[in-house]
Amino acid sequence: xxxxxxxxxxxxxxxxxxxxxxxxxxxxxxxxxxxxxxxxxxxxxxxxxxxxxxxxxxxxxxxxxxxxxxxxxxxxxxxxxxxxxxxxxxxxxxxxxxxxxxxxxxxxxxxxxxxxxxxxxxxxxxxxxxxxxxxxxxxxxxxxxxxxxxxxxxxxxxxxxxxxxxxxxxxxxxxxxxxxxxxxxxxxxxxxxxxxxxxxxxxxxxxxxxxxxxxxxxxxxxxxx
Amino acid sequence: xxxxxxxxxxxxxxxxxxxxxxxxxxxxxxxxxxxxxxxxxxxxxxxxxxxxxxxxxxxxxxxxxxxxxxxxxxxxxxxxxxxxxxxxxxxxxxxxxxxxxxxxxxxxxxxxxxxxxxxxxxxxxxxxxxxxxxxxxxxxxxxxxxxxxxxxxxxxxxxxxxxxxxxxxxxxxxxxxxxxxxxxxxxxxxxxxxxxxxxxxxxxxxxxxxxxxxxxxxxxxxxxxxxxxxxxxxxxxxxxxxxxxxxxxxx
Lengths: 225, 251
Prior knowledge:
The complex is a heterodimer.
Chain A: H1 14-47, H2 52-67, H3 70-85, H4 91-116, H5 120-128, H6 133-163, H7 175-185, H8 193-224
Helix pairs in contact in A: 1-4, 1-6, 1-7, 1-8, 2-4, 3-4, 4-6, 5-6, 6-8, 7-8
Chain B: E1 4-13, E2 22-30, E3 34-38, H1 45-52, E4 60-65, E5 68-69, H2 77-83, E6 84-87, H3 99-109, H4 115-128, H5 144-156, E7 162-166, H6 174-189, E8 194-197, H7 201-207, E9 210-215, E10 218-223, H8 225-230, H9 235-242
Helix pairs in contact in B: 3-4, 3-5, 5-6
């Protein structure tokens, strides 16, 4: 029987190493997302504020993030910081920084649009009942914003998980990097390793992202009531 | 003379650079009085109510609650709003909360009352407007008239000194108007102080102690309802009242 090459996945601790790499990706994506949600919530509220100067600065920030490829940002932070400021940060730290920088902008814009989609009368009936601004946001506006936010926030999270594949280029060993290492190591004895390893990586990404988007559908339905 | 609860002195309000929507309005309402404000659309009725509830900043003049100037005191603004309840045209219940949660939220949160007491009162009030069995439902499961009754209860729960009703039946289907106005009539009978903006002339006749006719941002007439509806003094008021009689239309 012809050798399919699938055994590369089960050689030694190869599969375990792939999972380890995946864990690095997840760690970066989820940590960044956590920061992005918290910071983005504030950014979004600031962006709906009355101050024109602040709104302009936020707008510029958002555009910069959107125009710059994440890879350029990664290089800027990882190599730029080391070279010009003498700050030596790990690749993973740089990745979290960049992803948070990106995610905060995107989350901020999502929060902003969710906030302005809430009818003016919701604010007014709250105020007319004597709510303070904080009470109003905490009990009336944010809970409603949250529901509107959920689908797009989840899609941002899955995009982040997928974009972690870029961090190979600043030397972080995540799932794609581990895959490459395995392929390189078995180049001679198993030339067909690439298809299996990348196939496995494909499925691993799917295994992470699919439950997340499923969860959002469930939550959305639950929150409706 | 009994003291006025809510007063305005020479209130003027404009949006941006356009001519003022409210000009020099001097108005007062005593405890237990029901004042109905009517006038053609765009005359500033709603803006007037919104100013009274400090939702709109005013250009000049004063708003007095129990004799105290409140329009310039931004710091205590929510304290004053507690005392001036308002119900809007678009019955904005909080969609993510049940009927009971909607009416309980403000007393518990803002007035820091005990939950059990608030609940008891909420249920009693909901029962009075015939909606006790709906207490666990969400606003989207209710009809427009039911929502508006809940909105009234939500405001009453704060025990306001004055109630402002801003065209509360304007967004309702005709068959639901009555159930809402019935509630307002009962409140009037119990001595609730109210400023009502409405387009329902028969209702205005029935509920008002005093009618204010507003046109182009000015108080044109201020009369008892009998006087105003039967013997309007100004041309403008006559013209306005005529628009409600179909036989007056030239076909």
